[in-house]
Amino acid sequence: MDTKDLIRLGVPLGEPIRLAHEFIQNFIAQGKDGALLEAEIFNIVTNPSAFFADELWLADRRRARDGQRGRGAPSR
């Protein structure tokens, strides 16, 4: 899935696209079914508050953020 696909799904340009690419990498790295990826991204775009309320999803985002933001931790 590339940037054009993400825009088609409603992901705004800029930081949201970067986060979506990061989400895709994590999704695949966790061994989740790639056939579900488009639906998962669409659900995040159409109902983001549901994902902010999901502690597992938030924990994954925090780990990714901390690993990516140069706090001395290696990237995942």
Give a quick summary of the entry.
With 76 residues, the protein is an all-alpha fold.
SSE map:
Blueprint lengths: L2 H6 L6 H15 L7 H10 L1 H5 L2 H14 L8
Cα-atom Rg, whole angstroms? 12 Å
Terminal CA distance reads 20 Å
* Distinct helical segment count: 5
Helical content (DSSP H or I, runs of 4+): 55-70%
How much of the sequence lies in strands comes to: under 5%
Shape: globular
Which stretches are low in confidence, meaning pLDDT under 50 for 5 or more residues running?
A: 69-76
Topology order in helix (H) and strand (E) letters: HHHHH
Main beta sheet: strand number and arrangement?
none
- Mean pLDDT figure: 78
Structural domains: how many? 1
Structural class: mainly alpha
Total strands: the figure is 0
Distinctive features:
76 residues; mainly alpha
Describe the protein's architecture and organization.
This protein has 76 residues and is mainly alpha-helical. The chain has one domain (3-68). 66% of the residues lie in helices and 0% in strands. The chain contains five helices and no strands. The radius of gyration is 12 Å and the shape is globular.
